[in-house]
Amino acid sequence: xxxxxxxxxxxxxxxxxxxxxxxxxxxxxxxxxxxxxxxxxxxxxxxxxxxxxxxxxxxxxxxxxxxxxxxxxxxxxxxxxxxxxxxxxxxxxxxxxxxxxxxxxxxxxxxxxxxxxxxxxxxxxxxxxxxxxxxxxxxxxxxxxxxxxxxxxxxxxxxxxxxxxxxxxxxxxxxxxxxxxxxxxxxxxxxxxxxxxxxxxxxxxxxxxxxxxxxxxxxxxxxxxxxxxxxxxxxxxxxxxxxxxxxxxxxxxxxxxxxxxxxxxxxxxxxxxxxxxxxxxxxxxxxxxxxxxxxxxxxxxxxxxxxxxxxxxxxxxxxxxxxxxxxxxxxxxxxxxxxxxxxxxxxxxxxxxxxxxxxxxxxxxxxxxxxxxxxxxxxxxxxxxxxxxxxxx
Amino acid sequence: xxxxxxxxxxxxxxxxxxxxxxxxxxxxxxxxxxxxxxxxxxxxxxxxxxxxxxxxxxxxxxxxxxxxxxxxxxxxxxxxxxxxxxxxxxxxxxxxxxxxxxxxxxxxxxxxxxxxxxxxxxxxxxxxxxxxxxxxxxxxxxxxxxxxxxxxxxxxxxxxxxxxxxxxxxxxxxxxxxxxxxxxxxxxxxxxxxxxxxxxxxxxxxxxxxxxxxxxxxxxxxxxxxxxxxxxxxxxxxxxxxxxxxxxxxxxxxxxxxxxxxxxxxxxxxxxxxxxxxxxxxxxxxxxxxxxxxxxxxxxxxxxxxxxxxxxxxxxxxxxxxxxxxxxxxxxxxxxxxxxxxxxxxxxxxxxxxxxxxxxxxxxxxxxxxxxxxxxxxxxxxxxxxxxxxxxx
Lengths: 393, 393
What we know:
The structure is a homodimer.
Chain A (H helix, E strand, L loop, with lengths): L24 E2 L21 E8 L3 E2 L3 E4 L3 E3 L4 H5 L2 E3 L2 E5 L6 E4 L1 H14 L7 H15 L19 E10 L11 E11 L7 E5 L26 H9 L4 E6 L5 E5 L2 E8 L5 E5 L11 H13 L5 E5 L4 H9 L3 E8 L3 E10 L2 E4 L11 H13 L8 E4 L1
Parallel strand pairs in A: 1-4, 11-12, 11-18, 15-16
Antiparallel strand pairs in A: 2-3, 2-4, 2-10, 6-9, 7-8, 7-9, 8-20, 9-10, 12-13, 13-14, 14-15, 14-17, 17-18, 18-19
Helix pairs in contact in A: 2-3, 5-7
Enzyme class (chains A, B): transferase
Pfam family, one (chains A, B): Aminotran_4
Catalytic activity (chains A, B): L-isoleucine + 2-oxoglutarate = (S)-3-methyl-2-oxopentanoate + L-glutamate; L-valine + 2-oxoglutarate = 3-methyl-2-oxobutanoate + L-glutamate; L-leucine + 2-oxoglutarate = 4-methyl-2-oxopentanoate + L-glutamate
């Protein structure tokens, strides 16, 4: 008799549930980009893309890493007409001392992308398989983060990233407005420069004229329809020297929502002398559940909150910010997101005048934004070990 | 001395202003679709597409009619990420008696598409050149509306159309959220069946849960972001047997806006005994300036309005409709749009109950919807001569 073997049964791969990393095939680009200094590749797409296709009847195909190339899309396909598209953005970074590459909390991007897909009538997938594929893809493309022979930057905080862009698009050629029967999942990447954290000038929008999102809409989903319509207002603001729009909501209450495509935080002291770090809540579905936002909140609650400092998610109006400024209680403000990281705000354009926002907390050597940014940097660069940094093998 | 010649100087074609029909080139499809009965081609795309490309520096390229084929789009291009896309829809129809093909008010589609392009940060073009190109394209593809040898339909009102779909998409490969520097204009077409005007069942949305558009948003522009996000709510409504959602806006006032992707009209008598044909106004920017909507309003004002019948554009709530129903004053309701044409509404699902909407006006042989539909049909089929019908040579 053979001894009985206790086996944890592997889950059966079901193509209607997800794509699977175990099914991944790789076709290497036969003309790989030649370079000695990867900084010359800035903003260029890398050599490969990861692709998986879905059909409502057959489910997901095996994912494949293939040479980066144009997609032959039918002119009638859903994404080009009805905005059936969503995306994610995250960064891979190489620690120059250890040579190791990390990405930051990819599980949160997986979960959010699934939510966006559901909102925009695209198929779902397993969060775990998404993360596995993302790590595999970075493993193939991490040479674009080469550090041997790379000239050290002047500022050691100034790191270049591999920006990772997963997208999902509806590919059914069909002129009727209907849920797509076919979709494509892609991961593409580009080397991008570290965001230079020049303090931002934000222009508060007029909620009678331009509104980014609405309760019952889709402001919490990372879908194309949240971005294209912001470009004209953004260009108009840029003509007046503003970096981004601070999106207000509701003509009466003028609630502060997002800064450009990033989340927004304000730090003020209350008339009673308490310090508050405040950001808009997720409850009304008008702002994005940012990975950086969530991380800032968690770190601030873990490491800053005390008797005299509170971290708060609640609705607040631009008039509260103006009042705090007028009463000398405004401590600082910052925007955060994958693209911006944690960027201090220097000025807020409100009702035709510019409010100067303090850049250093009163009497302290570092602002809250700087402190939190330093903590986050230590984590995603792998300088300190932390559960949020996923290491690429 | 040569006599002076008075010449009207032709406008100089400026590629930064528009594409031009005079520059059009045609490459015929070498494998044209073979058919004897064009009805077998239903929902298939025709043999050609019209394409013009734009770049911010060089302006518009010469437009070209080329064989219908997949578009090789860079995976990083704007339209796939940020919803930089807009479209139009219109129908070409062949009069079986005269053999002539007409399209309906293409100048209005040109104007609206320019507005949509502006809203979504895409380039503009000349309305006139758009119409000229559309007519040229239909001239090439009108064989898909062949009528010789075509079996007559049982119902003479039941006509097949060539559905024309102009689109504009942002094609710049660029991962940053920014106005595209490149765009593509396309016209594609498909033969589609006449909409079978089975009376519709509409489900009034809960404006706390699902909102199509909002003031300061982009509900008046024909951009992708207005369509993708409606698919999940629409599927949920379809599971309960509804054909479309009647989109309400504002939790308190519950204003009636659009029916699916069509405009909505209600006909009721006032307590004072006057008849009113009512639809939502364009003023708050949440509904589409429909070509059919506009035509219905114009014809109704021209041919129906009198001392006792008024045609009105104003905000109205679903509760007014319910009240009119309860008091026996609801005469009829209909949806209208290019896809639906003029479709009577049989039922409205409101707050968990279904309101039966009369399908025939009290005591009259034809409903207002039927009357207006007949007038519109006579115009676009070329049965009566009218300035709204553009004839294809």
